[in-house]
Amino acid sequence: MAGETKITIVGNLADNPTLKYSDSGAARVVFTVISNERVWDSSTRSYRDGDSISMPCVAWRQYAENIAASLAKGTRVVVTGVLKQRTHQPADGPRQVYTELQIDEVGACMRFATVEVTKAGSRPARHAAVPAQAAPGAFDATWPPVQAPPAPTTPPAVGSWPTPAMAS
């Protein structure tokens, strides 16, 4: 869509993601990412904390459920999305305007951490599954594949290997 303001923020989750469901059953997750600027202070010859930005983020449906199951307060993330401005008119007060990031992509930042990725809704790994008995005469593929035994380490009888003199 033309005119969208796409941004990327790298920061830490300020709180645990909040997962809620609409009346129609659609999942919605909301969390806040705080990004701090590091500024070089030449007078002290060291870095100091500069300005920070606090960005509310939102995602919907299965994506929301995956985020809620995967992220927690303090997790360093990289979030990309579309900046949207919303308004809310409470019955007993003035109109409120707020900005949120509708998430396109979110991932854990691996600069200071490691991540183990698990495909959502996937079945257990093959090595953990109990093998089923194959019907007689059926193709039996085993995992992991059976490897051939290693080659013998002793050389064959003299004269059976070509030598450089024989190769020319």
Instruction: Return the average pLDDT rounded to an integer.
Output: 78
Helix content: under 10%
User: How do the helices and strands follow one another from N- to C-terminus?
Assistant: EEEEHEEH
Largest sheet: 5 strands, mixed, barrel
State the separation between the terminal residues, measured CA to CA.
69 Å
Q: Quote the beta fraction.
A: 35-45%
Output the radius of gyration.
Answer: 29 Å
Q: Identify the strand order in the major beta sheet.
A: 1-3-4-6-5
- What structural category characterises the helix and strand content? mainly beta
Number of helices: 2
| Poorly predicted tracts of residues | 125-144
- Broad shape: flat
DSSP strand count? 6
SSE order and pairing:
Blueprint: E1 5-13, E2 18-21, E3 27-41, E4 46-60, H1 61-70, E5 76-88, E6 96-108, H2 164-167
Parallel strand pairs: 4-6
Antiparallel strand pairs: 1-3, 1-5, 2-3, 3-4, 5-6
Report a brief summary of the structure.
The protein has 168 residues and is mostly beta strands.
Explain the overall architecture.
This protein is mainly β and 168 residues long. The protein is flat. It starts with a strand and ends with a helix. A 5-stranded mixed β-barrel has the order 1-3-4-6-5.
